[in-house]
Structure formats: structure tokens, C-alpha cells
Amino acid sequence: MNAKPDARSILLVEDNETIRNAFAVLLRESGYVVEQAASGADALARAAEMDPDLILMDLGLPDMNGLEVTRRLKKDPATARARVIAITGRALETAYEACIAAGCSAYVAKPVDTRLLLRIIEEELGKARLEKHPKPPQT
Amino acid sequence: MIELQLFLRGDHEEAVRLREVLGREGFVLKRSLDRGEGAEIRLLEGADAPHVEDEEKARQIEELEVALRELRNLDVAKSQFLANVSHELRTPLTAIVTYGEVLRDGLLGELNDRQGEAVQSVISSSRQLLGMIEEILTYARTGARAIDLEASNFPIGGVIESAHEMSASLIRKKGLNWETTVEVELPSASADRDKILHVLTNLVGNAIEFTPAHGHIRVSARRWETDPAWLCIAVEDSGIGIDAQHHEMIFREFAQVDSSRSRQHHGTGLGLAIARNFIQLHGGQIGVDSELGHGSRFFFTLPSVEVNGLSEEP
Q: Do the beta carbons of residue B263 and residue B273 sit within 8 Å?
């Protein structure tokens, strides 16, 4: 499937090339515009360039923790808009709290269930749309 | 006489062998068991240890200390190796699962029924393998002492509910009857919630696996009879049960009751070893009451807020 003209953009941050390629195929074939970053520094630079709608953030990056990258993205007005979904090693509730505190909107535990991931991405993009065009207050 | 103090887990073979050797050499040995520290031997010094005049003996002691250091390093290296291998195995498997799901969901073109079934088998088997690798990784981490407890106070009923939710589809599939009983006004547990959820999920998973369709699983939490300041959590099933001679063995790593190649139940044989490690890290106990053919009752104890001298927040 090719991305439609109004396709939403996703920055995929994952250091392992094999896994990054697999997720890139999944996201592209699902109709998103996908950019990739292999490290924290790379992610910060790419996010500033492309202004993505959403960022998929693996937490185990070689140069800095994915949560630290998220905190920096959220601090910078140029990149703060993007919703961040963390991909964590284990499904721990403590990990979830840390993700939210760092500024992520959601998290998905490895091994990632792709249907679940796509659903969460759609939910997050839906919320982003609502924030952009808030419903008129009801009278 | 030189006094050596030996700390070891009851099942640590190298340490047990070492103890036998040392015993033959005429050392007085003290042994403390089952605190989860692994094998460690300490030479008592100071007032307790008489001055060593015999040079031959001093040399022997030095050799022993070197051997012990090597033993300890080997133990850590083994766990590190397991952790590295598991991590390396996970990456390609994750790619297999992801590409499999992309194919299954028709993102690269619709599949016919037979293709879809084949791809689904690839995904299921890979996920099963990933689960086992995750278990080995967790075990290796506890072996390398790389696990810290993050203690908090929480009601145990919520953890039982989470374990139930995580297994709900399997329970439904087998038509099992599930029952939870939590004693009224039970004090909160004071423990690492994620670790306890892991232990409980493992015990529930075993109960599901070893209980025939339409049987029952009962999970209960109450004050421990032996010491009411501790909680006792039990998972009881109407499954195939375990012969008394195997009750200790099943908590050892890589052990399964039926180790024959034709065995019906699969897995790494690490689940209960991990559970035991986690509970021992909390200072608790874990055990089983069971008889072949009459179901099993696994139980473990946990410190409550009362043990730690804290009163529960309102």
C-alpha cells in the first residue's frame, strides 16, 4: 500500500536494523509515512527535521535511554507536538509509570503484537486530531 | 583448628562437593542454608580463628580461596552467558514474528486459507519460543544477582485479579472453574509487586496446564498460620498432582517431573526456580502440597506491612 497524500507521519526509533526494517514494513504497508532513527541523537535530529505526528520509541537505545530522548523531545517546542509510544522490554507496571512521567502517551511491551500496536497508533493519532481541532463546547 | 563458614543454596552442587572435600581436610564447617545468596564460603578471622602457624595449612587455605573466587566468577559468567545468548536470540525471533504478522494480516497481499494457517503456525511457534527465552533471561538475571526488589505496599487481591485477567482466555478455553478467596481485612503485602505478579502468573499457568478440562483452580490469600504477620498465598488445582518424591525437585532449575523425550508438558523447567528465587529474595517461603492424582496446592509467604513495622495508609 502506498501512503496517501494526507498520510500521517511516524518516526521509528530502534537501534536494531532487522527489527527496525520489520516495523518499517508493517507501518508503511499500513499506510503511514515512515522515517527511521537508529539512536537517541539521531532521533532528536530527525524529529526536529520532519515534525512527525507520532514517534515509536524503543527504550533500549545505545547512546541514551529512550525515556531521556522523550523528555528532551517534549521539552523542545519544535518536537513537543508528537505523541510518543514507548516500546518496552517487559510488561511491568513500574515501567508504565516511568513512561508516562517522561511524556509518553502510551506503551507497548515486547514482543509487540502488531495488531495491538496498530490499534494504539490509531488511537493516539485520533487523540492528536481531537487536540488539534477541539470540538466546540456543547451548550 | 581453622573455621570456615559455608553459605550455600541447598542445591548448589559445586558448593556441596566443596563442602565434602573441605570436611575431609579436617576443617570445621558451618553452613547456612536457603537464603538465596548462592554459594559463598568465608574464612572466619579475628578472635574466632586461631593463629595459623603451620605454613602448609596457610598455603592450603590460600589455594582454597583462589578456587572459591574462580567458582564464584564462573557462576556469574554462566549467568552472564545465558543472558547474552537469550538477548541475541530474541532479536531475529522478533523479526520473524513481526514479518509473520504482516503476512497474516494481508499487508503484503491476501493469503489463501492454507497459507494463512501456515503463517499462523510460524507466529505461534515463534511466540512460544520467545516466551521460553524470556524465562531463561529472567532466570539468568536472578542468577547474576542483577535483580533488585522495588518494594511497595499493595493489596494482594489486586495482584490475584491481574494474574486472573492475564490467564482468562486460557481458563475459558479449558472450561476451568476459577475461584478467588481473600481473607477479610487482610493487611497489604510489602513486596515487589511485579515480581509477585510474575510468581503468581507462573503458578496459575502451571495449574492451568496440569489441570484437565472442566477442573477447578482456587486462589486464596490469608494470614499465614505459622506467623500471622506474614501473608500466605495459595494456588490450588484439581489437576494431575505431583508425587511426594518430586516435591523438592520441581523447584530446581531445568527440572521437570517427566524428563523423557516423549513428555507431554513442555517449557524450560525454569518457571518454579524463578518463582523460588523471587520469593526467597523477599525472605519468604515457597512450597507445595500434592499427591499424585489428587491435585496440587502451591503456596508462598510474603511479608505484610505488619512485618515491616509500617501501618497501612488510610
A: no
* Alpha carbon separation from A99 to A10, A49, A87, A109, A113 (Å, rounded): 19, 24, 10, 12, 19
Beta carbons of A111 and B150 less than 8 Å apart: no
Rounded to two decimals, the pTM is: 0.62
At residue B15, the pLDDT reads 55
Nearest CB to B98; choose among A1, A30, A114: A114
Quick one: three-class SS letters along B77-138? Answer: HHHHHHHHHHHHHHHHHHHHHHHHHHHHCCCCCCCCHHHHHHHHHHHHHHHHHHHHHHHHHH
* Three cell numbers, residue B217: 483452580
Instruction: Output the nine-digit C-alpha cell for A32.
Output: 503511514
* The pLDDT value given to residue A138: 54
Spatial separation of the C-alpha atoms in residues A49 and B194, rounded to whole Å: 39
Closest CA in chain B for residue A18 = B95
Cβ contacts of residue B282 below 8 Å, gap of 6+?
A: B149, B191, B192, B195, B302, B303
Q: Are B222 and B276 in contact (CB under 8 A)?
A: no
Sign of torsion over alpha carbons B153, B156, B158, B159: positive
**Using a CB-CB distance cutoff of 8 angstroms, which residues of chain B are in contact with residue A114?**
98, 101-102, 105
Distance from C-alpha of A60 to C-alpha of B296, rounded to nearest angstrom: 40
Sheet containing B286-290: order of strands: B177-182, B216-223, B230-237, B296-303, B286-290
B231-269 burial, b if ≥16 CB within 10 A, otherwise e? Answer: bbbbbbbbbbbbeeeeeeebbbbebbbeeeeeeeeeebb
Map grid coordinates 519460543 to a residue: B129
A109 touching chain B per CB within 8 A:
no
Is B43 or B113 the better-scoring residue by pLDDT? B113
Q: What is the spatial distance between Cα B174 and Cα B170, in angstroms, rounded to a whole number?
A: 6
Is there a cis peptide before residue A111, judged by omega within 30 degrees of 0? Answer: yes
Task: Give the distance from CA B24 to its chain's centroid.
Answer: 34
- Written as nine digits, the cell of A74 is 517534549
Facing A25 at nearest CB: one of B94, B102, B193: B102
DSSP letters, A67-127, are: HHHHHHHHHSTTTTTSEEEEEESS--HHHHHHHHHHT-SEEEESSP-HHHHHHHHHHHHHH
Strand ranges, E, within B216-276:
216-223, 230-237
**pLDDT, tens digit (0-9, with 9 covering 90-100), for B240-257:** 998 888 888 888 876 666
Residue B190: CB atoms within 10 A of its CB come to 21
